[in-house]
Amino acid sequence: MSSTTQTAPEARTDIKLPVLERETLILQGRSYQWITERVCGILENKQPLLWWWIFIPCSLMALIGVGGGLVRLVATGVGIWGNSNRVMWGWPIVNFVFWIGIGHAGTLISAILFLTRQHWRTSINRASEAMTIFAVICAGIFPAFHVGRVWFAWFLAPLPNANGIWQNFKSPLLWDVFAVSTYFTISLIFWYLGLMPDLATIRDRCKPGLRKMLYGLLAIGWRGGNRQWSHYEMAYLLLASLATVLVLSVHSVVSFDFASSVVPGWHTTIFPPYFVAGAIFGGFAMVLTIMVPARAIYGLQDLITMKHIDNMAKIILLTGTIVGYAYLMELFVAYYTGAIYEMDAFKFRIAGPYWWAYAVMMSCNVLSPQIFWFRACRENLWVVMFVAMCVNVGMWFERFVIIVGTLARTWLPGDWKTFSPTLQDVMLFAGTIGLFLALFMLFLRFLPCINIAEVKWTLKESDPHHNDPLIPPDPGVTLIPAYQKEYSKS
Amino acid sequence: MTPDRKRIYGYLAEFESAAALYQAAARVRDAGFKHWDCYSAYPIHGLDGAMGIKRSILPRLVFVGGLTGFVTAFVLSYATQVVIYPTVVQAKPANLFTIPAFFPIMFELTVLFAGLTVLFGLLALIRLPRLNHPLFESRQFQRVTDDGFFIAIEALDPSFDTQETHTLLAEIGGANIELVEEEDDDG
């Protein structure tokens, strides 16, 4: 019997494989044109009054908090920031880690979910990448001014000083400089590359004039030819793979700042994965915090569907559980190693003067996401927003517990102190929140907040073979209709 | 080349859907054209094959870019820490065994250089920025970034013929066939 004469066995028709249908990502069978109109409409029409109600207070907050705060800080000296004391020193670092962590969800959505072919990312990736960039800008303010004399901040760059001495490349702080600046650059490239076709869309819709010229300049002459798309898609894939390893490394390097020291409570190997999971956890909460209201205000329910929110809620549940595991594992390892200093550090965190911060962290980060096990909670936008807010607060307190809760009791009793924030601390933190939201409002106003080209690509008719008569439906399969929660009111 | 001829950019034809564009692209490819392109608002998967486009060479450029970053970081950290001015901080030595401490920076610069190569390599390969293009003269071409599907065959192509190419485009389902002309500033 030769293999060439063998025919494939007859397909059995009596067995039907049940296959769950994929949920539609864009509801109500919207057309290409509808997508273009709806997304470009946001920046072409007048903004709703609410936009001004958010933008003006936020920009004032940014102006007074960051602008005024930094002027006062530089003019007076870092002493007013409490930098002369090691415990007081902690707040800006808390904010730095908080903001840099927020950014991670954007990169996760744009890079890791791209590589894993999660098409639902297309509706939310643009806004979360913008969020990444604004969060990293907010984060960058803190270390730049924390160096003391900001006009010497260029000492961070790999350049020799007057005595020919170079930076210490063995120091995690310098690793951090490289990690964060690379992260910002790559995020910016990724964001811009994604924006290019959409900027061309806006350019082509503008009437001739200054506006068309500006968007035309930004779109650098994109024409949408397949010879361009072919290279473009390859570039996007490459950047996604680079950003995937990058996003896992950035917060790992941030955690090295702590983990490579010899301070009890910091010197643990669990820090890098624990920080990365926490960053993604906090980042997704921020994406929800921003996108749930934006979706309602601009009527994007058919593009950002309940399916998207459901998926994000599930990621929050997963990463929140990982974070909870890390919290418990930290305690277990402290107990199991029998290192008394390690144990004391954790006892101090749980039962010391900062017990309330520890309690907030535990309840917001570990307990609150657990209600996402229930479908009804993931489908109720108020519950989703409530949990997202809890996580935002909880993740800030996590960094507070880790940093201040440890610095307050280090090896030298002379350093022991109870933390209280200075005016400068509060101003700068509030200012960065204002700056972040104001930048995001400007983004909504001037750039397409949804990736138009990629969303169009997810439509059924975008596949050139979707109605091909040569490819009949598989007879061995029974399609089970997908569970799809739709909001009829839009 | 006559001055009149110089002004013609080529033919632009519209197609009704991604599937129609895909079918038509294969026909244009088989007709032996080289200077032509399909235009759409989003990347159509499989169109590269239908057009006969080879895989992008960008990954090779990026590999070289990444390697450059890796070597740069290694040289930068090793030379400054071990060769030029060895500094002993926190009792950490400055010698061959210090190299693991340079890994994070080597990694970061690899990613940074590779990422920059992606951006600039892409721009070089797709020949952008180029703010002006004859196709922008066409009114219907403005729909390309919205919901239009187009094929443009350039007059530059040796197989191009004002009559025959028009017939071909009409045959494969092209609508609104338009002769796109360049603004002849030199003439």
Q: Segments of chain A where pLDDT lies below 50 for 5+ residues? A: none
Structural class label of chain B: alpha+beta
What is the share of helical residues of chain B?
40-55%
Classify the oligomer: heterodimer
* Beta-strand content estimate of chain A: under 5%
Strand arrangement within the widest β-sheet of chain B reads: 2-3-1-4
Question: How many distinct helices of chain B?
Answer: 6
Would you report the number of β strands of chain A?
A: 2
Q: What is the first-to-last residue Cα distance of chain A?
A: 65 Å
β-strand percent of chain B reads 5-15%
Largest interface in this structure: A-B, 72 and 71 residues
Low-pLDDT segments, ≥5 res of chain B: none
Question: Which percent bin holds the helix content of chain A?
Answer: 55-70%
- SSE pattern of chain B: HEHEHHHEHE
Shape of chain A: globular
Order of helices and strands of chain A: EHHHHHHHHHHHHHHHE
Strand order of the largest sheet of chain A: 1-2
How would you concisely characterize the structure shown here?
Chain A is an all-alpha fold and 490 residues long. Chain A has 15 helices and two strands. A four-stranded antiparallel beta sheet of chain B has the order 2-3-1-4.
Q: How would you characterize the overall build of this protein?
A:
The complex is a heterodimer of chains A (490) and B (187). Chain A is built from 15 helices and two strands. Chain A has helices at residues 32-44, 49-76, 90-115, 125-146, 172-205, 210-219, 226-259, 271-298, 306-337, 340-351, 355-367, 375-379, 381-407, 423-446, 452-458, and strands at residues 17-20, 477-480. Chain B has 187 residues and is α+β, with helices and mostly antiparallel strands. Chain B contains six helices and four strands, in the order αβαβαααβαβ. Chain B has helices at 3-6, 18-30, 47-51, 58-84, 103-125, 164-171, and strands spanning 8-15, 36-39, 149-154, 175-181. Chain B has a four-stranded antiparallel sheet with strand order 2-3-1-4. In chain B, α4 runs antiparallel to α5. Chain B starts with a helix and ends in a 6-residue tail after the last strand. Classes of the chains: A mainly alpha (490), B alpha+beta (187). At the A-B interface, α1, α5, α7 and α15 of A face α2, β2, α3, α4 and α5 of B.
